Amino acid sequence: MSKKEDRKLHPGAWVPTLYLSEGLPFAAVTVASVLMYKNMGLSDTQIAFFTTLIAWPWTLKPLWSPFIEMFKTKKHFVVGTQFIGGLLFGLLALLLPFDGWLQYSLALFGIIAFNFATHDIAADGVYINVLSGSEQSKYIGFQGAFYNVGKILSQGALVYVAGQFEESLGVTPAWMIVMGIFGAIMIVMSLYHYKMLPSGGVAKGEVKSVKEAFVTFADVVKTFFEKKNIWWGLAFIIFYRFAEGQAIKIAPLFLRTARELGGLGMTTSEIGIAYGTFGSAAFVLGSIAAGYFVSKRGLRKSLFLLCCFFNVPFVVYLVLSLTMPTNFYLISSAIVCEYFGYGFGFVGLTLFMMQQIAPGKYQMAHYAFGTAVMFLGFMIPSMFSGYISDAIGYQNFFIWVMIATIPSFLVSWFVPFDNPEPTGIEAT
Q1: Whole-angstrom Cα distance, residue 212 to residue 214?
Q2: Structural domain range at position 224
Q3: Using an 8 Å Cβ cutoff, are 77 and 124 in contact?
Q4: Any idea what the Cα angle at residue 118 is, between residues 221 and 86, rounded to 5°?
Q5: CA-CA distance, 90 to 183, in Å (whole number)?
């Protein structure tokens, strides 16, 4: 399929589903697994460490991104990894009842993470190669919204399903069903994208061997670090999510933990409803609103305000830990505030990487570098968040989260913009 034929496919037919397919497996590995392991008896320290450790492929993915340029089209990688990922989730579901389920599940989650990290490289390549700069800005809200719809579907609707089956069937059968559903969704997505996804460009033949792939990788790294003010850009990407990486891992554990232990004592199903219904609606509205907002003002003028929307709402978890409300709708209202701001603010990070980090000779690979660094900035604080929470308690932990937002404000205020912003990005 040529680039001209690619552009005949309306972005609305594939951008939402493509990024839902990115967000759903990421949240399955890093968030839904948190509640699964919580209900299977692991401590918060173990959960935060293990569920962050298995997500390392999303940080290491630049190491194999040049190989994707060697074969077929980016569409082939997207469709193939979605189908394989669906089968892997199915295998995970089948292995949960066996002795050694923890080792099996961690190993499979790690393989699933590698598979979908590869998927994300190709998927982002399709988005960047097919859409113009102005179109990228126009659809960035939908991209961010549906990426996080996938995440919230994982930690919301499917967590609710798990909670319902936990009550009637038990914990292990419930999560077998949910992991099976994850697999089925990804297989359906692979079939849909086989028909509806643009090719994203055919391999150009510039990389024809493993040796050339390593040479290309070396050049990718060299040119990446030669970018003007790249260290400022990397600092921005790392610290923008520094507080979120901690709060987002512990928040569902705080909601689920019994009240006598400092949590809110919500059921698995209640958490699923709060995130999957109220939270997801707020997130979508926030993401889409931010896309149109930035398309009018430009990213440079909007970035600090986006940072405020992203970080300040984490205060709701501190308020909840201090007041310990029992009303489900009051708790859900706090989550709505947090997720609207989360959705609104996340757009700033994604668009910065596309417009300020990715441009150049290796656009797809450099964007993959940017997202890898972003995950690193998310994962390192996530990995140790459980230890901090267990050591100081939920109230003090959420005070610490608010202190941890300070680096995000600093880098958002001072980060330089070296590439001109796209023109003609007004929302229609």
Answers
A1: 5
A2: 9-414
A3: no
A4: 170
A5: 5
CA–CA separation, 105 and 110 (whole Å): 8
pTM: 0.74
Decide if pLDDT at 203 tops 60: no
Q: Does some domain include residue 316?
A: yes
For residue 423, is pLDDT > 60? no
How much is the pLDDT for 403?
Answer: 96
The contacts of residue 173 (CB under 8 Å, 6+ apart) are 97, 165
With a cut of 50, say whether residue 426 has pLDDT above it. no
Task: Kindly state whether residue 324 falls inside one of the protein's structural domains.
Answer: yes
Residue 142 domain flag: yes
DSSP-derived letter for residue 274 is: I
Neighbouring-strand partners of residue 73:
202
Count of alpha carbons within 13 angstroms of residue 42, beta-carbon side = 21
- Tokens found for residue 58: 């999303």
**Is the CB of residue 382 less than 8 Å from the CB of residue 52?**
yes
Residue range 44-93, pLDDT digits in tens: 889 988 988 898 898 888 778 777 766 667 899 999 999 999 999 999 99
The tokens describing 99, both together, are 């002795």
- Residue 230 C-beta-side C-alpha neighbours within 13 Å: 17
Scan for tokens 């909670």, then name that residue.
163
**Which is higher by pLDDT, 139 or 257?**
257
**Per-residue model confidence (pLDDT) at position 428:** 28
Query: What is the C-alpha separation between 51 and 162, in angstroms, rounded?
Result: 18
Tally Cβ neighbours within 10 Å of residue 259: 11
Q: Considering only CA atoms, which of 383, 418, 422 is closest in space to residue 128?
A: 422
In the chain, the number of structural domains is 1
- What's 155's domain CATH number? 1.20.1250.20
- pLDDT tens-digit series, residues 101-122: 999 999 999 999 999 999 998 8
The length of the chain in residues reads: 428
Tell me, rounded to whole angstroms, the distance of Cα 108 from its chain centroid.
19
CA 417 – CA 326 distance, rounded (Å): 46
266 falls within a domain: yes
- Mean residue pLDDT across the chain: 87
Distances 110 to 3, 103, 122, 126, 189 between C-alpha atoms, Å: 34, 11, 19, 25, 21
